Amino acid sequence: MTLEERLLGAEEARAWSQFLRTSQRLEHRLDRELRTAHGISHTQYEILVNLAEPGTEHGNLCMSDLADMLATAKSAITYQVNQLVERGYVERVKGEGDQRNVIVRLTVAGRALLDDVAPAHLDRVRRWFIEQLGPGQLQDLQEALERTCRQIVGRR
C-alpha cells in the first residue's frame, strides 16, 4: 500500500494519481504537437487565445491579467510573451496612466497563426479529452473542476 493510499484511501489515491498523470501527459502531448507543427508552446497558444477573446479590448491585456488567466507566474508569462514578440505574434505597448503597466496586443500575424493552429489543436483536445467522456460526464467534470478552482483561489 502506498503512502497516498494509506492517507487518502485506495480509491481517492487512484483518482488523484490518475488525474495528475493524465493532465500532465495531455499538457505535454499538446505542447509537443504545437511546437512540432507550429513552433509555439501550449502556453503561448493559450496567450494568443486569451488575447483573441471577444471580451478583451481590441486584443489587449495587461501582463498581470494574462498571468492570472493562465494561473502562471508573471515571470513565466513575460518569457512566453517575449518569445511571441520576437516572432511578431504579439506586441507590447505602454498602458495609459501608469507607465509600468505593460499591455500585450495580438498582431495580425498572431491572429492569422491562431486561425491556422486552432482547428487541429481543438481537434486533438476533442479526440484525446472530450470524446473520452460519456453523456453527462463532461458537465459533471466541469462542475467539479470549477468547485475545485474556487476552493483553491479562496472564492466560494
UniProtKB/TrEMBL annotation:
It comes from the Bacteria. Keywords: DNA-binding, Transcription, Transcription regulation. Residues 12-150 form the HTH marR-type domain. GO terms for biological process: response to stress. The keyword Transcription applies. The keyword Cytoplasm does not apply. One of its GO terms (molecular function) is DNA binding. This is MarR family transcriptional regulator. It comes from Actinorhabdospora filicis.
